[in-house]
Structure formats: C-alpha cells, structure tokens
Amino acid sequence: MNKILKLSAIALLSMTTSLMAQKSFQGTSVALTASVVGAEAKGTVTSSDASSNSDSGSVGRVGAFAGIDAAYTVGAGTNGFFGFGATYIPFKAELATATGGKSGQDGASTNSGKAEIKDYYTLYIQPGYAINNTSAIYAKILYANAKLDVSGATSSSKDLEGWGGGIGLKTFLDKNLFVQTELNYTEFDSVTVTGTGNLAGTATGKPKIAGGTINIGYQF
User: Fold this and answer.
1) Which residues, in sequence order, are bridge partners of residue 208?
2) Residue 205's CB: how many other CB atoms inside 10 A?
3) In this structure, are residues 156 and 191 in contact, taking their beta carbons and an 8 Å threshold?
4) Is 163 left (phi over 0), alpha (psi -120 to 50) or beta?
5) What is the mean pLDDT of the chain?
6) DSSP letter at 106?
7) What are phi and psi for residue 196, nearest 5 degrees?
8) Is the CB of residue 212 less than 8 Å from the CB of residue 185?
9) How far apart are CA 217 and CA 196, in angstroms?
10) Are 80 and 73 in contact (CB under 8 A)?
11) Domains of the chain: residue spans and CATH
12) Tens digit of pLDDT per residue, the chain (220 long)?
C-alpha cells in the first residue's frame, strides 16, 4: 500500500510540474528585439542595348537592427504550446548599388542607383515544448512581407512576400521577464526591376534574409 501511495504521489507531482511548466509559457507577451541580419539577392542582369548581354551573380549586406514582437500563446498537450504572433523590424537594408556612365559629344555622364529592403514584418506560428518551468525550445513558421525600394536611374517600390522558419530557446528570468534567442531564415519571391539611362536593363533577383535575434520581453 505504501509503495502504491508513493508511486501515486510521484505521478501527481510529475503531472503538476508539467502543467506548471506549460502554464509558464501561456498568455500574452511583448518584446523588444535586436537582430543581426544578412540580406542577399541572387539573380541575373540583362542589358537593353543591341548586344543584350546578360550576367548573373549575387549581392548582399549585413547589418544590426531593432524591432518589436507581440504574441499570444496557448497550451497544447502536457508540456507543449502554440504561439501566434507578429514581428515588425523597421530596418532599411541596402542590397545593392550600381553605377553606369557613358561619354559622347555632349561629354561624359554618370548615373548611380541602389536597392533597399525596408519595413520588414512577419506573421508566425510558434509551436514549442517546455523543458522545465523556466525554459522551452520552439520552432517557427512565418510569412514575411517587406518593401523593395529602388532609386537612381529608375525609382520604384515593390512589395516582397516570402516564407521562412526558425528555431529558438525561451528562458524566463523571473515570473514575467524572459529572454529569447533565435536563428531564422526567409526567402522571398523573385522580383524584377527595369533601369533606364546609363543603367538601362533588367535585373531579376530572389532576396533572402538570414539572421540571429535576441528578444527581451514581458509575459502577462
């Protein structure tokens, strides 16, 4: 009888601990994010002159940016949970610069242009598993949207859409304050930009973003 009572107590304690671990990660949270992001675009460039020459390659930049994150998390199973949230990073990442020039009877002329990604936001689903009362691992599936601004010989703004994912670790420092670290990757749809003047031609590329993020947040 004593053995049965002990086993029952252990099982009850284990179940209580699991529920407490799961409950720690449920609710609404807000966080400030700091990210080191690498933006890259691979594609082709075709000139618009009589030769119609084409070339391929990649361009990219790395930078540090800040943003905000908001999420709502519900329990799933014993130690599992699902988070639903959004992140907004008002960064501007320069993808590429170009310079073109020509000389003629009227003298030499030069044009320059650049392409930038800005107003990056994501909507995501974040399934996770609580390791204990204070720490959990998670995965992330996300939809991403950003604007591509092209200026110089031609000026235009295009919406970029893509999908990505990530993995991370969330740790509570006390009852409400937490730190979250994450690695993520996003690939956008192909985009085409047409230049004029000395930068005449068509450039087609597929932007990609990869980065590491640290969130410091508060869970209500």
Assistant:
1) 40, 187
2) 24
3) no
4) beta
5) 76
6) T
7) -130, 175
8) no
9) 47
10) no
11) 2-219 (2.40.160.20)
12) 555 544 444 443 344 444 445 567 899 999 999 988 877 766 555 555 544 544 444 455 677 889 999 999 999 888 899 999 999 988 776 665 554 444 444 544 444 556 777 888 999 999 999 999 899 999 999 999 988 877 665 556 778 899 999 999 999 999 899 999 999 999 988 777 665 555 555 667 778 888 899 999 999 9
Token representation of residue 10: 């252990």
Give dist(CA 15, CA 17) in Å, integer. 5
DSSP string of 33-44, one letter each residue: EEEEEEEEEEEE
Locus of tokens 């284990």:
14
Q: What is the rounded distance in angstroms from the CA atom of residue 124 to the CA atom of residue 164?
A: 9
Tokens of 30: 């807000």
Q: Is the pTM of this model over 0.85?
A: no
Do residues 135 and 181 make contact, with C-beta atoms less than 8 angstroms apart? Answer: no
On the CB side of 137, CA atoms within 13 Å amount to 2
pLDDT attached to residue 116: 76
Q: 51 in helix, strand or coil?
A: coil
